[in-house]
Amino acid sequence: MTFSIAARCPRTGMLGVGTSSKALSAGGLVPYCQAGVGAIASQSFVNPYLGIDGLVLLEQGLAAERTLERLVEDDPGRDLRQLGIVDKDARVAAYTGGRCIPWAGHVLGGGYVCLGNILVGERVVTQMARAFEAALNDELPERLLRALEAGQEAGGDRRGRQSAGLHVVAQEEYPWCDLRVDDHPDPVAELRRVFEVYKREQPFWQMMLPRRDDLIPSWDAVLRVRDEMERSLELDDIAVKER
Questions:
Q1: Which of 177, 2, 173, 11 is nearest to 90 (CA)?
Q2: Which of 61, 19, 36, 13 is nearest to 187 (CA)?
Q3: Exposed, middle or buried, 155 (CB in 10 Å: 0-12/13-18/19+)?
Q4: How deeply is 89 buried, as exposed, middle or buried, from its count of CB atoms within 10 A (0-12, 13-18, 19+)?
Q5: Burial environment of residue 178 by CB neighbours within 10 A (0 to 12, 13 to 18, 19 or more)
Q6: What is the DSSP letter of 70?
Q7: Alpha helices in 75-139 (DSSP H)
């Protein structure tokens, strides 16, 4: 009921998952990412613990393939599950259970995996892979979104459209990019719109976010922004009173 891509950027080390589905809030249950550890897409009658436990195994040092083996082995619902994993060293692994609703399958590439179930056909994931590879010079969030757009253009989910999400981590423990469209008639297009807003606004705030090794980066800029916001609010209050 979902098509997704999990990937690692060879230049920056960013890890991320892009997903879309004819199901509510796919962006909340499919992606599992941890900076310096890995990225996992868990879907098809989703078992969130495959993502949660998978990150633990990756953090312990297991490679993507071995992590996948352990997760599938321990899940009695494995025949209905679908799973894609990319580890910190760009090794990839994927699994599609035998009872996933067709079309269901996956494509493995260099540092990425595209996977889907209840799709109009295999072309969805092959076009996703082609779009991802063609955007090699772009940053990871853009590449993931390009893959989702290609998958939707190729037909996407057989049942229709509802949600989409983009989750990317960089060096910090919080996301670099975490955008969701939970319920929309054209979720991938709406995700693109929100992503363009993100590109305009987020860099300004990103530079001021705390780092694990520096809790007050760009502190002078933070204080200036704080003072400007307060002055702007005071002027708004004055304008309201004068009406």
A1: 11
A2: 19
A3: middle
A4: exposed
A5: middle
A6: H
A7: 123-134
* DSSP per-residue codes, 174-237: SEEEEEEE-S-SSHHHHHHHHHHHHHHHHHHHHTTS-BTTBSSTTHHHHHHHHHHHHHHHHHHH
pTM given for the model: 0.94
Q: Kindly list the distances between the CA atom of residue 161 and the CA atoms of 1, 22, 121, in Å, as whole numbers in the listed order.
A: 10, 4, 15
Question: Which pair of structure tokens corresponds to residue 194?
Answer: 């929100």
Neighbours of 8 (CB within 10 A): 22
- Contact criterion met (CB below 8 Å) for 18 and 113: no
> What is the SS3 assignment for 61?
coil
Q: How many CA atoms lie within 13 A of 108 on its CB side?
A: 13
69-121 pLDDT, tens per residue? 999 999 999 999 999 999 999 999 999 999 999 999 999 999 999 999 999 99
Burial 96-113, CB ≥16 within 10 A → b, else e: bbeebeebbbbbbbebbb
The domains of the chain are located at 2-206, 209-243
- Architecture (CATH level 2) of domain 2-206: 4-Layer Sandwich (3.60)
pLDDT confidence bin for 207, thresholds 50/70/90: confident
Burial class (CB in 10 A: 0-12, 13-18, 19+), 237: exposed
The answer to whether 44 touches 94, Cβ cutoff 8 Å, is no
**Burial of 190 from C-beta contacts in 10 A (0-12 / 13-18 / 19+):** middle
CA distance 143 to 102: 26
For the chain, the residue count is: 243
